[in-house]
């Protein structure tokens, strides 16, 4: 089992951190670090996952915010129209849970 370093625990508050394995759950781990990670977490991610894996998550994630996706799209020089969370149909699906 390839457990994660302890400094990443704060990003995975909603799951059992001791059961997270980078070989079993790479997309979940990458997605969370792209969305929430600091510089140290991103450095760890880049050292432990190849660019193809990271780009695949960027293209296919439904959980990345448009803000994070935009940032990483610029970093990796990706085509915006291929990133799922930028598509109009996806943006319309996200409805507020509570209208203030």
Main sheet summary: none
Low-confidence sequence ranges:
none
Radius of gyration based on Cα positions: 14 Å
Indicate the mean pLDDT. 89
Give helix and strand order, one letter per element, not per position. Answer: HHHHH
Organism: Candidatus Sediminicultor quintus
Domain DUF6922: 7-58
Protein name: DUF6922 domain-containing protein
Structure description:
The chain has one domain (6-93). Helices cover 48% and strands 0% of the residues. The protein contains five helices and no strands. The mean pLDDT is 89. InterPro entries: DUF6922 (IPR053830). Pfam families: DUF6922 (PF21956). This is DUF6922 domain-containing protein.
Summarize the structure.
This protein has 100 residues and is an all-alpha fold.
Attribute tags:
single chain, 100 residues, mainly alpha, globular, DUF6922 domain-containing protein, DUF6922
How would the blueprint of this fold be written?
Layout: H1 26-36, H2 39-48, H3 51-60, H4 66-76, H5 88-93
């Amino acid at each position: 089992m390839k457990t994660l370093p302890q400094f990443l625990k704060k990003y995975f508050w909603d799951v059992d951190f001791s059961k997270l394995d980078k070989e079993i759950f790479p997309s979940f781990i990458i997605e969370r670090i792209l969305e929430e990670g600091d510089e140290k977490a991103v450095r760890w991610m880049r050292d432990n996952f190849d660019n193809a894996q990271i780009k695949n998550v960027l293209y296919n994630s439904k959980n990345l915010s448009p803000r994070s996706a935009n940032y990483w799209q610029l970093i990796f020089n990706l085509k915006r129209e291929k990133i799922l969370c930028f598509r109009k149909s996806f943006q319309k699906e996200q409805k507020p849970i509570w209208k203030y």
